[in-house]
Amino acid sequence: MPSRMSLLHSPQGQKMEKPQNSCSSVTDPSSRSPTGILVVSYHAPLGYHAPLGCSGTSPLPPKDIPAGINYVITAFASAKIFNTGSYYTPFKPLSEIRALFDSGAKVCMAIGGWGDDEGFGTGAATDESRKTFAKNVAETVEKLGYDCVDVDWEYPGGNGEDYKVITNDKKTSEIESFPKLLSEIKLAIGEKELSIAVPARKPDLIAYTAEQMPKINAAVDFVNVMAYDIMNRRDNVTIHQSSVVDSKAVVEHYMQLGLDARKLNLGFPFYAKYFETQGECVQPVGCPTVLLESENGIDTHKSGAVTFETVSFSDPGFAKAMQNGILDSERGGQWYWSPESKKFWTWDTPELVTRKFEEIVKPMKLGGVFAWSMGEDSKDWGHIKAMQEGVKGLKDGGHVKAMQEDVKGLKDGGHVKAMQEDVKGLKDGGHVKAMQEDVKGLKDGGHVKAMQEDVKGLKDGGHVKAMQEDVKGLKDGGHVKAMQEDVKGLPDPECL
């Protein structure tokens, strides 16, 4: 059975909540052959993909690290250009990107990203605008040679970067227009895969409702759950940014809304986040923070994100946090609070990556995994390697085989056969025949004939004739004549 794992890389200067050099995502294709490292997917083949950015500021891993990646997602093309048909130029020619990965790896174009929601809102607004947006997307991927499209709208329905400028109540129409836009894009790109990146922070799931989710599920090939940034600058007390418990909860929520688990890809962050607290913080959850965002939505620079790259360790505060991190074994998150800076740090270790495979990906039979982002891992590539081992464990441990057996069991175990036998039994057992006999019995047994005789009896027995005689009697007996005389006796209209 196919499966997937993907890593992304984003451009320098891109406005986003996450670190600015890379990102990652996964797909759920149904017709790919196994190619190595994987994240389990019911449909997709063994392998993982790696999105790249526009400038590639961070070095990509040595070729042996991304071996097996079967999808590469480049981030980001601005959503605005697809409303006007403007030309998009990738930060690297696709031929150079393909050369970094296994032969046959597909390269996908990511649209949007943090702070780029206006273009989506405009494109999704009307039937005409949706068709234009989708047509331009399809023409772009065809012209440039992309194999797939990833829509990263943060977020339909509101809570984007501009939520203080354009309030959520002015974006309610996006809740219904979002799945319509996805459907148009999928229709336009045809057999090329379409994926979306979705939030994990509950307040941001405005457009992901029980009513809309079946439409979204029908339009996309896979869904990348950004199970990170669960704490951001809009919060006022500390929580883990991507704990095992919180990641599992958001996946369960999407499944309850109607998303197919086999389409879901769990996201991992290759960066730590920090938030300044008001006072001492002796536990990872519940410490009050200072004001992290102003009333007009501007970052107060009291919070941020730092990647695991070697250069990041030149910051003594970050280095100390990494060296002295504390495991919250109950919730599954790594944390540290600095008494000097009053910074609360939260991140995933490679060990927590492994735990997420064991407690989320494997038991919930998810379609795959991905990470934000390629190039942001530590110098030993520990997080990527943990993902590789997790995927390998799914394969060796029977996760993929188990899903194949589930399908096979439906056939061999009699599920499909039982249904066929039920239908056959209706015929052989006389169910259908009995119904035919019932109808025949109505005829042969006289039921229909009796009704015909009843009607005939009304005529022959005088019933109809009696009614005709009654009417005739009214005339002959003077009843009608008397009524005419009554009318005649009324005063002339002129007297009224």
TrEMBL record:
In this chain the GH18 domain maps to 43-394
Write out the biased-composition intervals (Polar residues). Answer: 9-33
Pfam families reported for this sequence: Glyco_hydro_18
Q: Which residues cross the membrane?
A: none
Q: Which GO terms describe its cellular component?
A: extracellular region
The UniProt annotation puts the region (Disordered) at: 1-33
E.C. code: 3.2.1.14
Return one GO MF term. Answer: endochitinase activity
Mind listing the GO biological process terms from this record?
Answer: carbohydrate metabolic process; chitin catabolic process
Gene3D superfamilies under this entry? Glycosidases
Top-rank taxon: Eukaryota
| Protein name in UniProt | chitinase
Q: Which organism is it from?
A: Ophiocordyceps sinensis (strain Co18 / CGMCC 3.14243) (Yarsagumba caterpillar fungus)
Origin organism lineage: Eukaryota, Fungi, Dikarya, Ascomycota, Pezizomycotina
